[in-house]
Design brief:
single chain, 357 residues, alpha/beta, 8-stranded parallel beta sheet, two-stranded antiparallel ribbon, 12 strands
Length: 357
């Protein structure tokens, strides 16, 4: 297994590669394929890497009684839950049309397969990767079937425990080396107190050989940006064209201006993360020249005097002298020329001084 792999053709994730940003359209398209296309175009225009939907074969995802139960929510598109879901579900042919449109626009296209038959269809559709929704993270027959397909997998972990996620990791790993696990809390919208970003670090320790990511349902973008700063290599956020539309997910979704700002902020944070190597950078040289401090003489020191710590002080000096961090190396050494009080002590003034440069 590797900390980086190709999630879509030509697009690596993990390591030093840019965070992969998934715009989760889900079912925020209102069951209208033209709105769905507008949302795909919006995701591309805002800078996201992938437009993602949710595909269900309803008779395989729900039992009959679940589909027949009355659904009187303000978000309902039908009298029963089945009618509601059928309104929002695109046909196979419509999925092919959306996939074609996404290719024309130039953005990756995939979906969460919400049941085993949906996974079979998405495999036939040749999506770049499978997304596993939180509700299927503990569905081990489903995970095994999906992993055996050999496509990369992005697995959300809402509603699960670490014990379960260890088992998820082992189950998928047995059949598929290329997957990532996303920290997720399944609440819409999600309160900051329940985000639990620290799980990202725990996942990084538990599963050190796969990229870790974040799927967020909170309002705004700040928490998702923080997740990237903590090392998330994939992020997923629900998107919408209008938060006031009917549907449970809209309130926890990002409108176009927010998605644009999220992408901009993530790319800015990535630029700021650097290499992890602590050293003086070229951009700091001017400040160092102007304000960097040197060892100076607290008193006048005649030529030949052996230096002691009480003779030495630290100030911004002109000319630049020995660095304060090397002051201890001067003690016990003799000066080779007179040093005036308050004058800089330069390397050439000290006998056998081992200058660090």
């Amino acid at each position: 297994m590797s900390l980086k792999f190709e999630l879509g053709p030509g697009r690596m994730i993990g390591g030093s590669n840019p965070c992969f940003i998934i715009a989760e359209i889900g079912q925020n398209h209102q069951g209208d394929i033209e709105i769905a296309k507008k949302m795909i175009k919006m995701a591309k225009d805002c800078g996201a890497d992938c437009a993602k939907f949710q595909k269900s074969e309803l008779e395989y995802k729900f039992n009959k009684r679940a589909l027949e139960r009355p659904y009187t929510s303000k978000h309902s598109w039908g009298k029963t839950y089945g009618d509601h879901k059928r309104h929002l579900e695109f046909s196979h042919e419509q999925y092919r049309e959306l996939q074609k449109y996404a290719k024309e626009v130039g953005i990756f296209f995939t979906a969460s397969g919400m049941d085993e038959m949906a996974v079979e269809f998405l495999d036939e559709l040749d999506v770049p990767f499978f997304k596993v929704a939180s509700c299927d993270a503990n569905n081990f027959p489903y995970l095994e079937l999906t992993a055996r397909k050999g496509r990369p997998m992005v697995i959300s972990s809402g509603m699960q425990s670490m014990v379960t996620m260890r088992r998820v990791y082992q189950t998928v790993k047995e059949h598929n080396q290329n997957f990532t696990i996303l920290q997720c809390t399944s609440a819409y919208p999600l309160d900051p107190e329940d985000v639990n970003l620290c799980v990202i670090a725990e996942y990084q320790k538990e599963f050190p050989d796969i990229p870790i990511g974040y799927s967020g349902h909170e309002r705004g973008i700040s928490i998702t940006v923080a997740a990237v700063a903590m090392g998330a290599k994939v992020v997923e956020r629900h998107v919408t064209l209008d938060k006031s539309w009917k549907g449970n997910d809209h309130e926890a979704s990002l409108e176009p201006s927010e998605l644009t700002e999220l992408v901009r902020a993530i790319r800015l944070v990535e630029r700021a993360q650097g290499t992890g190597i602590k050293q003086m950078l070229p951009c700091e040289k001017a400040c160092h020249v102007k304000l960097g401090k040197s060892v100076v003489a607290k008193v006048a020191i005649p030529k030949g005097t052996v230096l002691s710590m009480d003779m030495l002080g630290v100030k911004v000096g002109e000319p630049r002298g020995v660095s304060p961090e090397d002051m201890g190396q001067l003690v016990g050494k003799a000066v080779t020329e007179d040093v005036e009080e308050d004058g800089s002590i330069t390397p050439r003034m000290v006998d056998v001084y081992n200058n660090k440069g």
